[in-house]
Amino acid sequence: MTGRLFGRRRPAAERTVTLIAKPDCHLCEDAERVVTAVCGELGVAWEAKDITRDEALYREYWEQVPVVLVDGEQHTFWKVDPERLRKALR
Q1: What 3-state DSSP class applies to 48?
Q2: In what order do the strands lie in the sheet with 45-50?
Q3: How far apart are the C-alpha atoms of 62 and 46, rounded to whole Å?
C-alpha cells in the first residue's frame, strides 16, 4: 500500500516514515533532525534503520544515504526538505 486507503490519504497516525542512514554521517544527522521535527509536529511514527547493519539496505541505498521512505516508498535522499515531507504526510 502506498499511503492511500481506498483512494484516500491515510491519517497521519497510520503513516510511517523510515530514515535509512549510517553512523558518522552529517547528512544523516541533519535528516534525522528534520524527520524528528516534522513527524513530531504531525504525530507520525518514524523509525531509523542503519545500512551498516542490514546488507539488503546497504546494497540498495549505500550511494543515497540518508534516504527517507514514506509508507515504504522512497520519498527523498541526501537532503530532506521539511515542507516537502510535511506535504507528503498531510
Answers
A1: strand
A2: 45-50, 16-21, 67-70, 73-77
A3: 20
**How many Cα neighbours within 13 Å face the side chain of 62?**
7
- 7-43 confidence digits (pLDDT tens): 456 676 789 999 999 999 999 999 999 999 999 999 9
What are the structural domains of the chain?
20-89 (3.40.30.10)
Report residue 3's pLDDT band, with 50, 70 and 90 as the boundaries: very low
> DSSP 3-state helix, strand, coil percentages of the chain (rounded to 5)?
40, 30, 30
Distance of CA 83 to the CA centre of its chain: 13
Neighbours of 55 (CB within 10 A): 9
DSSP bridge pairs for 49: 20
Please give the full DSSP string across 6-40, using - where no structure is assigned.
TTEEPPGGG-EEEEEE-TT-HHHHHHHHHHHHHHH
